[in-house]
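Chapter review. Work through the record for Ribosomal RNA small subunit methyltransferase H before attempting the end-of-chapter questions.
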Amino acid sequence: MPTLHTPVLLNEVLEYLNPCPGQNFIDATFGAGGHGLEILKKIKLSGKLLAIDANADVSVFVKNKDNKNLIFINDNFRNLDKIVKKNFPYHVKGILLDLGLSSDELEQSGRGFSFLKNEPLDMRFSVNQELTAAEIINHYSLGNLIDIFKKFGEYKHAGKLAEKIIELRKKQKFQTTFDLVRAINLVHHHNFKEKIHPATKVFQALRIAVNEEFKNLTIVLPQAIDILAPGGRLAIISFHALEDRIVKNFFRDLSRAKNPEIKILTKKPVVPINSEVHENPRSRSAKLRVIEKI
Ligand SMILES: C[S@@+](CC[C@H](N)C(=O)[O-])C[C@H]1O[C@@H](n2cnc3c(N)ncnc32)[C@H](O)[C@@H]1O
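Structure tokens for Ribosomal RNA small subunit methyltransferase H:
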């Protein structure tokens, strides 16, 4: 299947990571390989790329399967340390994390990421994981649902929606994305002046909760710093204000330590230029932050 995903801030990532022949890199969110395969071209056959993704389906995008310089591991990046120890005994010049989900997952995974498609309420990046969106919607308490919609989606009607879900699920369990869209429509009529459909925020919040995205980010950050060789760089693209804050605060605290281990290369986050946002609207909320290990 061809990819529907366009890599975000590709030129900027390549500029900061500056992959050169013979160097080794880690793309911890390989997706369709939009960034990883470009890095691979630049490091040539003498360099190595460790490509990680929680979603096993992306292995179709792993080109040159016989090529020993691209190692693909289907795992969660929160296990980065273990993955690297087992599979990548090399001097690591750069690590990329391009967070969230890919357009392929949104449009063609069949896992209920999009409110425009009627699919099972799943939302897992990895089908090996037990927790699904249906489990959260059908079993979490009122307080937990409100927290998820508020904290991860900044959704204004979090309380009303959580109450509606609990009322509806007593009669019939939620099974599909359209069951959830129906509940959202009952508490919040889409006003066409609103740029973003209300379901966008609710679906984003649920996806973040199902995949424990902020927790995994917090877990991987110190591991990534440890793994980098001196002079190596860590580049992170985030799409959510809270996610960006986690990255920003982590980098700031490390850079201000007594004997700082890193220096920040992006005083302000790098954002896409207008033409990129025009061509790829998904890039509109992207923020890139990069550090260098001292
Ligand atoms: C935004 S996409 C990356 C797209 C890729 N850079 C490209 O241009 O083709 C994010 C990818 O990271 C994966 N992912 C998200 N969280 C993950 C995690 N904790 N561990 C491993 N992979 C994860 C998703 O399955 C998805 O394929």
